Amino acid sequence: MAGRIRDEDIALVRERTSIAEIISDTVTLKSAGGGNLKGLCPFHDEKSPSFNVSPARNVWYCFGCGAGGDAIKFLMDAEHLSFVESVERLAARAGLQLRYLEDDRSAPRPNRPQQGQRQRLVAAHAAAVEFYTAQLTTAGARTAREFLAERGFDRAAAQRYGCGFAPDGWDLLTKHLRQRGFSHDELVTAGLSRPARSGSLIDRFRRRLLWPIRDLTGDVIGFGARKLFADDDGPKYLNTPETPIYKKSHVLYGIDQAKREIAKQGRVVVVEGYTDVMACHLAGVPTAVATCGTAFGADHIGVLRRLLLDTDAVAGEIIFTFDGDAAGQKAALRAFDDDQRFVGRTFIAVSPDNMDPCELRLAKGDLAVRDLVARREPLVDFALRHVISRYDLDTVDGRVEAMRRAAPLVAKLKDREKRPEYVRKLAGDLGMEIEPVQRAVATAASGRPTDGPAARPVRTEPSVDSPQSMVEREALKLALQEPVLAGPMFDAVEATDYRHPVHVAVRAAVAAAGGAASAAGGAVWIEAVRDACEDLAAQALVGELAVEPLRIDGEPDPRYVSITMARLQWGSVTARIRELKSRIQRINPVNNKDEYFAAFGELLSLEQHARALREQAAGGL
């Protein structure tokens, strides 16, 4: 059994380790004042950075999930390493030689006979890279070199990305690594070798061009292998299988070279293949990365958000590049679903000639690749255009069906402020009036079907800068900031008089917290309302409204509260009047006399109420 690392060596590792450098390999850190740094926590999903690092004390702590510790603990949690493996990793990085004690803590040992599993698997991959890169220069690798050359990659590019060649032999790598001291089980666990039918061990990759796949720290954890020969009956691309160190849902090719530019530029370009990453980097787009044998998913998003510092305050750019063919368009629409997981803005860049970045660089040069990224368009615009293009807009049926299919895309937009603009754009693209498009989007946002008998008109929400939204916002500010003054009048106005969904949610939270009239105000009251909110958007709005100045010079008084609440109700009542008038127009008074007169009587009552509110609000804001 291996000995224990000496305590003084562990202390020296902690002393010689810069915790900011270690964490920066995974998380983009920004100044938080007082010498501290902050970023998005890698251990839980969050929109605002609560992960704090203190370089002076060499510790980190997340106020969101409560995790914390030193650099050793960070590696243990982030890389799933044991304590000893983490110390060894940091020691190697700092150039320190560790000493070990026997289990009885007697004589020191100069070297530890067994490393942790991760170190052994990483070491096996490092040895495999040396083997494969050497093979690329042999006569048998001529086809691999031609493949690279035909795509515009010279010897320097191949060396920069560690390209290699798996030779035409069944167990050449396996024998090489066994001679280097790696065991049968280690090679199988690493995914470098596999058992043959005979029971012997053979290489996983054979007669293929290889790209080493590295993690954020630069360690090689797997390979991507491209078929070169027609008689190879395997798939076009073959990747390392899932191993203790290679998780394809987390891995992004090129991330080790792109991470610093991603953090610096606040932008990442997601491409589809290894050669596309190489082409982008060499063409002057150093933020390109690619998935490895799997679709772009939630775990990849988590990695990129931490590098982008993708928060409400610092929103980055995520640019997808896809081929213009049907498969590429399908991938782009799938990416639109992932768009909602990012805080930042998502774009798509598609070559007008349907070429991928590698083909584009080869055909038109480096500038064309940079222009491709520069000409990016919002992903929602692309998605809407793609959906609409499938229908004949010269017919009524085609326009209506296109509206029904496109409305859910607009409803999915995470930035509610953009929805009204996209409603207008969609109506213009379809050649339709804005009202039916508004209803379709509002119906989709409510989770109800946009067609069929279950689809019914619903009231549309006002934009955040509309007069109605502004007065709703002012009323909520009064309840949060001045509950003693505004409480009784505020509580008397029901949530049904609020029309913006997030405002409705905050109004409901005020009621759930006991009502404004019962509150004494201050931080405790604000926290009570925030805790009562059922979604993050409402929680964020409470924090915003709690500190936003009121729209009045001087201190608010009862008259100001009365005017605000009257204006709030007047906007709601006039909206109901419009809806009721529209309904009356659709009623046939001959066949539905009772319904017609009942609606007409309700209209007269509402108009009378509106006049009274207008007089109450006549003082102005």
UniProtKB/TrEMBL annotation:
Pfam families: DnaB_bind, DnaG_DnaB_bind, DNAG_N, Toprim_4, Zn_ribbon_DnaG. Residues 266-352 form the Toprim domain. InterPro entries: DNA_primase_core_N_sf, DNA_primase_DnaB-bd, DNA_primase_DnaG, DNA_primase_DnaG_DnaB-bd_dom, DNA_primase_Znf_CHC2, DnaG_bac, DNAG_N, DnaG_primase. Its cofactor is Zn(2+). Keywords: DNA replication, DNA-binding, DNA-directed RNA polymerase, Magnesium, Metal-binding, Nucleotidyltransferase, Primosome, Transcription, Transferase, Zinc, Zinc-finger. It catalyses: ssDNA + n NTP = ssDNA/pppN(pN)n-1 hybrid + (n-1) diphosphate. This is DNA primase. The gene is dnaG.
